[in-house]
Amino acid sequence: MQTVSSDASQNISVYLSFVSVMLTAVTVVLAALAIAIGIIGAYTFSGLKTEARSTAIGTAKEVSEQTAKDIASEALSEIKIKSIVEAQLSVYYLQREQEQEWGPPGGEGEER
Questions:
Q1: Which domain holds residue 29?
Q2: Is pTM, for the whole model, over 0.70?
Q3: DSSP reduced 3-state for 110
Q4: Residue 106: inside a domain, yes or no?
Q5: What's the number of domains the chain is made of?
Q6: Do the domain assignments include residue 42?
């Protein structure tokens, strides 16, 4: 009977040793993976930084060009409208001067 108890405790001891070795192996693999990720990150960080900078510059350039085009088209439309208004205003002032000089249209002795 003692042999059965001795075998069971020996089996548990072997099982615990196996679990301990497996957990240690998993820990070592995870540590190696973390170190590899760190090395790869350190190696590629400068490349990522350069790529991020070039992307930011390109995006900023596109946005600034579009903004400049929008503002320019708006300003040009204001100039066009202003010139039309000034032309109409000059016609109005000319008619007003003529009315002051010659009188309103349809005055005395004038036929329609």
A1: 1-73
A2: no
A3: coil
A4: no
A5: 1
A6: yes
Residue 53 CA to residue 61 CA, distance in Å, equals: 12
Cβ neighbours for 112, distance < 8 A, ≥ 6 positions apart? 106
Q: What is the mean pLDDT of residues 58-74?
A: 89
- Count Cβ atoms within 10 A of the Cβ of residue 91 and give its class: 0-12 exposed, 13-18 middle, 19 or more buried: exposed
Asked, for residue 90, whether it belongs to a domain, the answer is: no
The pLDDT tens digits of the residues spanning 12-47 come to 888 889 999 999 999 999 999 999 999 998 888 888
Question: 5-37 burial, b if ≥16 CB within 10 A, otherwise e?
Answer: eeeeeeeeeeeeeeeeeeeeeeeeeeeeeeeee
Residue 31 counted as domain residue: yes
Phi, psi of 61 (to 5 degrees): -65, -45
Residue 39 to residues 32, 33, 35, 47: CA-CA distances in angstroms? 11, 10, 6, 14
Number of residues in the chain = 112
